[in-house]
Design a protein that fits this description.
The protein is of the alpha+beta class. Helices cover about 35% and strands about 20% of the residues. The strands form 3 sheets. A 5-stranded antiparallel beta sheet has the order 7-6-5-4-8. A hairpin with a 2-residue loop joins strand 5 and strand 6. Helix 2 crosses helix 5. The longest helix is centred in the N-terminal third of the chain and has 17 residues. The protein is globular.
């Protein structure tokens, strides 16, 4: 298979699977500096022949193709023949700044205790979601239709029936939510999928356009900086860790998602009370007064 660009993969049979395998090659070279043909083939359950085709395709797409190590004594007993090495000046084929999460996702399923570099993933208790309970709700999100829910809110002692019109699925703070218009409260709200007890489509119920969700479409810039209580060298380290430029990282976030961003950064309480000492993380929000104002405004609207 001769592929001249990643865009061609979209129209090819099996193109999505090949693209995932090529991304794995990218991640391995980027983070480990080498790729073993045998590991690549075992990872995806493909033959060595198909693995060689993958690597040939990757090398054809790359401006800095990885060289195959020639037969001979293996370096440190691990880099024998069938190993492809990252060039010193390496340009990823996918052209984006990689995240270690990419490697986690591609590596962890086949991690073994006896592997050369075992990787472990801490698993916290999961929020249980039953497919039968949310199937209609998810379908309504894609079909842009209304839906009836039986929902257990943490602000109510008993479950209640809601008629909603969802338009987006979100994962934040370790949970899946749907963003939906609530017909009883006449506003857009977030509904946790794990708290949906049942759902039914209401195709004859007039939907509400997602374009009316102002908080979803409005963007707020959150300016993260190293926490002022840190020493100069510590602040320099945090700026490097969070990829800050001139000591600042500006993150645009949907206004509807602002709460979740601050919650995940463990800054929500500190921002609400405008107290830097409540932040037990090494970052702070430079425009904290503006962000606190946005939170208050949204709470007053609810």
């Amino acid at each position: 298979m001769s592929v001249k660009s990643l865009y061609e993969l979209e129209s090819l049979r099996g193109g999505s699977s090949l693209k995932a395998r090529l991304k794995h090659v990218d991640d391995r070279l980027n983070w480990f500096g080498f790729l073993r043909l045998a590991d690549h083939a075992a990872k995806f359950g493909i033959s060595d022949v198909q693995g060689k085709i993958d690597i040939k395709t990757y090398r054809n797409l790359s401006t800095t193709p990885p060289a195959e190590r020639k037969p001979g004594p293996a370096a440190a007993g691990v880099l024998g023949a069938g190993t492809y090495l990252r060039p010193e000046k390496f340009v990823p084929v996918f052209g984006i700044a990689g995240s270690l999460d990419d490697l986690w996702l591609s590596r962890l399923p086949d991690a073994r205790p006896d592997a050369a570099c075992p990787l472990e993933l801490l698993r916290a208790p999961e929020h249980r979601i039953e497919p039968d309970d949310v199937r209609a709700l998810l379908a309504a999100t894609e079909l842009r239709e209304s839906c009836r829910l039986r929902y257990q809110s943490m602000t109510s002692a008993e479950a209640s029936e809601r008629v909603v019109c969802p338009h987006a699925v979100v994962k934040a703070s370790g949970r899946y939510h749907v963003r939906a218009f609530d017909f009883s409260r006449k506003r857009f709200l977030d509904f946790s999928l794990s708290r949906v007890l049942s759902s039914d489509l209401l195709p004859d119920h007039a939907p509400v356009p997602a374009t009316l969700d102002d908080d979803w479409h409005k963007t707020v810039d959150v300016e993260f900086e190293p926490h002022p209580r840190l020493s100069p060298t510590q602040r320099s380290m945090i700026a490097r860790e969070y990829r800050m430029t001139a000591g600042l990282s500006v993150i645009p976030v949907r206004r509807a998602m602002l709460f979740y961003l601050l919650d995940e950064m463990r800054l929500l309480k500190a921002i609400r009370q405008q107290d830097k000492d409540l932040a037990d993380v090494p970052v702070w929000v430079k425009n904290s007064k503006d962000i606190a104002g946005e939170l208050v405004s949204m709470e007053n609207e609810s």
